[in-house]
UniProtKB/TrEMBL annotation:
This is Glutathione S-transferase family protein. It comes from the Bacteria. PROSITE patterns: GST_CTER, GST_NTER. The keyword Transferase applies. Residues 1-80 form the GST N-terminal domain. Keywords: Transferase. One of its GO terms (molecular function) is transferase activity. Residues 86-215 form the GST C-terminal domain.
Amino acid sequence: MIEIYHKPITRSIRVVWLCNELGLSYRLVFVDEGADKADLDAFDRDSVLRKVPTVSIDGLVMTESGAIVQQLLEAHEDSLVNRKPGTAERAAFLQWIHGAETLSFATSLVAQHAHLRPENKRVPAMAAEGRQLAFQYFSALEKELFHRAYIVGERFSAADIMVGYTLYIAHLMELFDAQSFPKLTQYFVRITGRDAFKITIEQCVPEDVRSFRPL
């Protein structure tokens, strides 16, 4: 049994997306305002730091999205979204799975200091630093995608899920566009056109913020 504790627009989207790609059954447990008390009590029990994602996999509790993704892939190693140990793409696969947090850090700076925090607690310099870091990451992705369809070769993988979630957040904040990053934009359209992604967004993101701006 897989239970995924979730709040909207958080990294738990990565885990839900992977489960949908793998065709796994799971229970999505919302722990934001208005959540069921029993679910909140279970969340308090399983997540000492009260962070999402918190995932229980047959009683095994994990809280880091990259580690959760890797754990699920090891249990389904023959999945098409995995790259097995010993394969030529394995090192790059792991690099992008865990390196996706670099972009998440950048987008978090922008989100906190340009959108989420009260005006008197925002630091414009931090938002600017986040945008600069994100631009550097987008530039690296643009080069990687110049001769390939996906992050690791010509087939979709869990690395695209890890990176794709953060690109979705960046897209909502209008941090990249087709004129500046044409290959990245084509890639983003490609991965977000997948059925599993569309289902995930319908499940995980409030309707008033899930709509895409034109690309």
